[in-house]
Amino acid sequence: MMKYNNKEFENIVNEYITHPEVCKMKKYAHHGINRFEHSYRVAYHTYKVTKFLHLDYISSTKAAMLHDFFLDEVSDEGAIAKLRRHPNAAVDNSKKYFGLTDKEEDIIRTHMFPITFRPPKYLESWIVDIIDDYSSIYERGISTTKSIKASVNFGIIVLVTIFKSII
């Protein structure tokens, strides 16, 4: 797991990153990494932005860590429906294991706007929504780049093998 060298951030998310149910998110692929790492990245960047802007960075960071706290796969079949439903599942799981403030619930429930049609009520909710989108694009790019590099490396190995067999 990636670690950020920030003690305050780690203290805010520690309850979540050590919880066995949240750790189950590590099993699910998400944007080329796993859902846990994605949520951790979103939480860290949310922490940095909301703290810089003197907003409620504690609630924002907590909710960002839990924004994708649902424990099933998103397949291509019915993906849009699942994208619309998963914030509610994340809210239900978060309430079940931790409890949420109204703001934290709004952050989680609206992080897929406009796909979910429900606009965020708080500036912190908008920030998590945007950081989640940015992180998703970044992670897919990293994943795609790794796939391309692996394909190129495989291609080079094949070409070298063919070339050696010809000589």
Question: Any key phrases for this structure?
Answer:
single chain, 167 residues, mainly alpha, Hypothetical protein af1432, two-stranded antiparallel ribbon, 7 helices, 2 strands
Describe the 3D structure:
This protein has helices at 7-17, 20-23, 35-52, 57-66, 79-97, 102-109, 123-166, and strands at residues 29-30, 33-34. It is mostly helical. The chain has one domain (7-166): Hypothetical protein af1432. Strands 1-2 form a two-stranded antiparallel sheet. The protein is globular and about 70 Å long. The termini are far apart. The model has no long low-confidence stretch (mean pLDDT 82).
Q: What is the count of structural domains? A: 1
Strand content: under 5%
Which architecture name does CATH use? Orthogonal Bundle
User: CATH topology, what is it called?
Assistant: Hypothetical protein af1432
Q: What is the number of beta strands?
A: 2
- Would you tell me the structural class of the helices and strands? mainly alpha
Q: How much is the average pLDDT?
A: 82
Instruction: Outline the biggest β-sheet.
Output: 2 strands, antiparallel
Give the secondary structure arrangement, pairings included:
Blueprint: H1 7-17, H2 20-23, E1 29-30, E2 33-34, H3 35-52, H4 57-66, H5 79-97, H6 102-109, H7 123-166
Antiparallel strand pairs: 1-2
The gist of it:
By secondary structure, the protein is mainly alpha-helical.
